[in-house]
Amino acid sequence: MAAIKAVLGFDMETDIGSWTSGYEGVKHGTPIILDILDKHNISGTFYFTGDAARKNRETVKSVLDAEHEIGCHTLFHETIGDSLFEIPGMMPILPEEVENRIKLATEWVEEVAGVRPSAFRCPRLFGSNAVVNALESLGYQSDATYPMYFFKERLTPYHPAKSDWTKEGDMNIIELPNFANLALDSQDEYGRDMDQWPLFRTESAEKLMEHVKAYIGYCEKKNIEPFLCFYFHPWEFWKMPEGLIYSGEGAVLPDPFIIKNCGEYAAEQFDIMITMLKELGTEFYQAKQITI
């Protein structure tokens, strides 16, 4: 079996992917994640929004104290790249606004962490040419945004092209494709059923590993070393409210799968998932440790 490299990324944002304005997950879910990573003696990358960093300084410190990588995840979890599909009320910022927005987000994270982030991820994996070019100009080393389930072409880390971030080129920044089971016959118009998230908690670690193993076989047939970039969220490790969520002048009702099994079950299955990955001989990296 070919060597397997994995990056565990944690998107440090408001609860339920910004369906709320709170940070219960960042406050209470992060320590659970840190304990599991410590148990397995592995490291990950924590992508903080600027706002999450400023409002959760002790959490940032705990991540640094545990020697994990601090990355950036925009300013407020806004859509900063091109939309892959429509989400009502979540319009992307304009391309000409992108660099200043990322620059400010970077400064906010650096102000709290005391280290400048070199790893980035766009919310919802909605990236763009404007994003990667801004990241390049700001000195970022990696961008973990490429949605393998949607584009289906890049399987391993690559240097993107300035004119098309989904293609290989000669930029310095490294694009990290997010794992999806491309061996699956997708039944979704966007290919989202090939995506790994959030199978580990909506189903089980074992179910997720079925997809991982199928993808490893897919890579082996192409003589490609499997690369697994995952994304998780601290709010998945803390029980989230069910039903209508009231805030400001109204309420939202997230799809049930988004909050299914958040809390103890997610933590248990995450622990099992790591054990199963290690049994396959997986080596774990921070985003900044990935080279080409």
Question: What's this model, at a glance?
Answer:
With 292 residues, this protein is an alpha/beta fold.
Give the secondary structure arrangement, pairings included.
Elements: E1 5-12, H1 15-18, H2 24-40, E2 45-48, H3 50-55, H4 57-65, E3 69-72, H5 98-113, E4 119-120, H6 129-137, E5 142-143, H7 148-151, E6 160-161, E7 164-168, E8 174-175, H8 199-202, H9 205-221, E9 227-232, E10 245-247, E11 250-252, H10 256-259, H11 264-279, E12 283-285
Parallel strand pairs: 1-2, 1-9, 1-12, 2-3, 4-5, 5-8
Antiparallel strand pairs: 6-7, 10-11
Description:
The chain is of the alpha/beta class. It has helices at residues 15-18, 24-40, 50-55, 57-65, 98-113, 129-137, 148-151, 199-202, 205-221, 256-259, 264-279; strands at residues 5-12, 45-48, 69-72, 119-120, 142-143, 160-161, 164-168, 174-175, 227-232, 245-247, 250-252, 283-285. The strands form four sheets. Strands 1, 2, 3, 9 and 12 form a five-stranded parallel beta sheet that branches. A three-stranded parallel beta sheet has the order 4-5-8, with no helix packed on it. Helix 2 packs parallel to helix 11 (264-279) and helix 5 packs across helix 6 (129-137). The longest helix is centred in the first third of the chain and has 17 residues, at 24-40. The protein starts with a strand and ends in a 7-residue tail after the last strand. The model has no long low-confidence stretch (mean pLDDT 96).
Characteristic terms for this protein:
292 residues, alpha/beta, five-stranded parallel β-sheet, three-stranded parallel β-sheet, 11 helices, 12 strands, 36% helix, globular
